[in-house]
Amino acid sequence: LKMSWFWFYLPLHLLMATCLCHSIKAPTTSSQQSSKSNLFNFYHSLILADGKETTIHLLKDIPKRYHFVLEEGRALAPFSVTVTPCDVPIEWSIFVYKSPPGKATPGDHDTQEVSKSHRTSSMVTTIFNYKGNSVETYMGMSSHSALYLLEFLSTERDTHITVYLTTDTTSGYLYPELPVDPRIDVIGIGHTTVTLAWKHSPSVLQHRESIQYCLLVNEKHNYKSLCAAETAIRSSGMKLPPTLALSLSPYLLEPQQVMILSNSELSIINKVSSGEVRQVCMGTKNTYTVANLSPSTQYYFDVFIVNLLTNASAAYTGTFARTLEEPEPKVTELKDGKVIHVVLDGKKQKFYSLQYQAKHKKIHFTFQLCRGQIRVHITRNGKTVASENLSGLRYFSLKGKLLDTYLVQLRSTEESNSSVKVQASPHFHKPLFPLLPESLKIKSFSKLRTCRSVTIAWLGTQEESKYCVYRKRIEEDQIWRELQSADRCSGPESRHKSEKVLCKYFYDLNLQRAVTTETIKGLEAGTLYLFDVYLFGPSGIPVRYHSKVVKTRKKC
């Protein structure tokens, strides 16, 4: 750009004095006042760089102005200005100062040419005005030298925008080119998947190595630019690298982000308050299936074509789709007093449903967690009456009406398989499981350990019950596996006969004294043993205490 600095260093008092004299000589019209204001703004504006994307920060209700001068000596001077709002809608305008025939532009050295005729309404004109948050491009051409002013204003809040000016339309464009039809087509919808397709960008055909498509998925709304999408994610409380295409690096991820690399596609999932925001870059493929979505949920999809060399991007017209409702899960009927053993697949994370129709007003549900971690959700006639994570043995006593319908839904909360035993019964005085102590932990006494014996203790109840003790020799590297894989619902029938130590009965009406100890002898020195205690109730179904690992002394 060819600029004349004399114009911009013209003393401010000279302009003010000239304007004051003019106002004394004759009354001014509103258009003349507007023209003078716009001309005055040229003195208080920054130079807009040519061929470079400029980031501009706007304060609320405070306009910001930039200017540029078209090159002199060219018969036709083409130019274009592209403005990308990165958040809220903004207002922006382009004003042009054109010299009357035979007069100099404000950039010329002959300051005497700044005459009265320059301050008429024909001196400064508005050639473009826009208000909104879409990416807009103005393309113009001038037959002689002219000075242009761009004015930007945000009336909602502080924000930032990017502006790209170019006067060289022959050397290629900064932004990737969109196809004639920039819409995204939804070509398939499932319960947890949506398949998308879009027309190829002409830029992909010309510059395949430096161009790629990136997809943004969220549950809130579509975004009109990549800049706007990044700003929205940041405002949700998350730090995001400057651009989507160039920021997919593991070391830049935040704690709320998950990176997935699969089949040369890089995905980042951001956990935000308004739901997941997924970012996927898939190279130059123009079809993509978004998987692992939630059923019956509306998602918004935006595709951006990104120039990896310049960081610039262009947005396709966003679309949205609602995933299909999940089919009703198979429901198993619960019968009075019957125990059902349910095994849940942790990888699928699906609910297992049990239904029970009440034949009494009071209903008792019993859950014995066998393995893993499980979430239980109970509804009565469609209304939630209980919901929690299971731990050990759990009873729910519920009161309703005759013929009430209860739905019990179970789901594993970890990736490994989980299992649980479930019973529904109106007869609480005939419980399936025995009366339990306050704790199912087994305690060992370090001071009572010898090379050949170990002393353990456990709590009992006020009800006379049978307790059986089992032991198993294990190695150091087996401890974690034995403790984690233990089936807490399995009884002594799964144990080898040689592992049985003893069985005994005891109780105490005073719970403070309901504790028993047992010294297990005949052990080997310096050896690890796994001890289990089984409690049997009236029904004969056992409850397993938490396993205890104890090592005998090596030397005595």
TrEMBL record:
Assigned keywords, A-Z: Glycoprotein, Neurogenesis, Repeat, Secreted, Signal
Alphabetical list of SUPFAM superfamilies matching this protein: Fibronectin type III
Signal peptide: 1-21
Example GO biological process: nervous system development
Domain Fibronectin type-III: 176-313, 434-542
GO MF annotation list: heparin binding
Native organism taxonomy: Eukaryota, Metazoa, Chordata, Craniata, Vertebrata
The organism's place on the tree of life at top rank: Eukaryota
Originating organism: Vidua macroura (Pin-tailed whydah)
Transmembrane segments: none
Coiled-coil regions, chain positions: none
Any single Gene Ontology cellular-component annotation: extracellular region
Function: Secretory protein that plays a role in various cellular processes. Acts as a chemorepellent acting on gonadotropin-releasing hormone (GnRH) expressing neurons regulating their migration to the hypothalamus. Also promotes neuron migration, growth and survival as well as neurite outgrowth and is involved in the development of the olfactory system. May also act through the regulation of growth factors activity and downstream signaling. Also regulates extracellular matrix assembly and cell adhesiveness.
Location relative to the cell: Secreted
Protein name as it appears in the record: Protein NDNF
Major subcellular site: secreted
